[in-house]
Design goal:
Length: 85
Protein backbone atom coordinates (compact mmCIF):
# COMPACT_ATOMS: atom_id res chain seq x y z
CA UNK A 1 0.00 0.00 0.00
CA UNK A 2 2.97 2.32 0.56
CA UNK A 3 3.96 1.92 -3.09
CA UNK A 4 0.35 2.60 -4.10
CA UNK A 5 0.37 5.88 -2.16
CA UNK A 6 3.61 6.97 -3.87
CA UNK A 7 2.25 5.92 -7.28
CA UNK A 8 -1.04 7.73 -6.70
CA UNK A 9 0.64 10.93 -5.60
CA UNK A 10 3.07 10.95 -8.53
CA UNK A 11 0.23 10.16 -10.96
CA UNK A 12 -1.82 13.06 -9.58
CA UNK A 13 1.14 15.45 -9.83
CA UNK A 14 2.09 14.52 -13.39
CA UNK A 15 -1.41 13.69 -14.71
CA UNK A 16 -0.46 10.12 -15.60
CA UNK A 17 -1.90 6.65 -15.09
CA UNK A 18 0.42 4.05 -13.55
CA UNK A 19 0.39 0.28 -13.97
CA UNK A 20 -0.04 -1.28 -10.53
CA UNK A 21 1.24 -4.73 -11.53
CA UNK A 22 3.40 -5.98 -8.65
CA UNK A 23 5.91 -7.78 -10.89
CA UNK A 24 6.71 -4.84 -13.18
CA UNK A 25 9.83 -3.80 -11.25
CA UNK A 26 13.00 -5.72 -10.34
CA UNK A 27 15.27 -5.72 -7.28
CA UNK A 28 17.71 -3.36 -9.02
CA UNK A 29 15.05 -0.90 -10.19
CA UNK A 30 12.43 -0.96 -7.43
CA UNK A 31 9.02 0.66 -7.54
CA UNK A 32 9.87 2.88 -4.55
CA UNK A 33 12.91 4.29 -6.39
CA UNK A 34 10.93 4.87 -9.59
CA UNK A 35 8.05 6.67 -7.89
CA UNK A 36 10.45 8.51 -5.57
CA UNK A 37 12.24 9.98 -8.58
CA UNK A 38 8.89 10.95 -10.10
CA UNK A 39 7.87 12.69 -6.87
CA UNK A 40 11.17 14.60 -6.83
CA UNK A 41 10.61 15.66 -10.44
CA UNK A 42 7.21 17.04 -9.37
CA UNK A 43 8.72 19.05 -6.52
CA UNK A 44 7.86 16.69 -3.65
CA UNK A 45 10.01 14.75 -1.19
CA UNK A 46 11.63 11.56 -2.56
CA UNK A 47 9.98 9.45 0.15
CA UNK A 48 6.52 11.01 -0.21
CA UNK A 49 6.55 12.72 3.18
CA UNK A 50 5.39 16.27 3.75
CA UNK A 51 5.47 18.82 6.54
CA UNK A 52 2.10 19.46 8.15
CA UNK A 53 0.84 22.38 10.21
CA UNK A 54 -1.19 22.17 13.40
CA UNK A 55 -4.80 23.17 12.88
CA UNK A 56 -5.03 24.46 16.45
CA UNK A 57 -1.76 26.35 16.94
CA UNK A 58 -0.80 26.98 13.32
CA UNK A 59 2.83 25.97 13.85
CA UNK A 60 4.73 23.42 11.78
CA UNK A 61 4.81 19.88 13.19
CA UNK A 62 8.23 18.35 13.76
CA UNK A 63 7.35 15.00 12.17
CA UNK A 64 7.25 14.40 8.43
CA UNK A 65 3.84 12.89 7.53
CA UNK A 66 3.43 10.28 4.77
CA UNK A 67 0.15 10.60 2.90
CA UNK A 68 -1.20 10.45 -0.62
CA UNK A 69 -3.96 9.26 -2.95
CA UNK A 70 -5.24 5.69 -2.58
CA UNK A 71 -8.22 3.93 -4.19
CA UNK A 72 -10.68 2.19 -1.89
CA UNK A 73 -13.63 0.10 -3.00
CA UNK A 74 -16.49 -0.31 -0.58
CA UNK A 75 -17.80 -3.84 -0.73
CA UNK A 76 -21.43 -4.24 0.21
CA UNK A 77 -21.49 -7.44 2.24
CA UNK A 78 -24.22 -6.91 4.79
CA UNK A 79 -26.00 -9.67 6.69
CA UNK A 80 -29.39 -8.20 5.80
CA UNK A 81 -28.58 -8.61 2.08
CA UNK A 82 -27.48 -12.25 2.42
CA UNK A 83 -30.06 -13.94 4.64
CA UNK A 84 -32.33 -16.54 3.06
CA UNK A 85 -35.59 -18.06 4.24
Amino acid sequence: MIIEVMAGKSAAVHGLVHDATPFKFSEKDTAAEYFGKMLEAGGYNYYGTEKMYSGIQGCEMEAAIFFGVVHYQRLRHMVSDKWQV
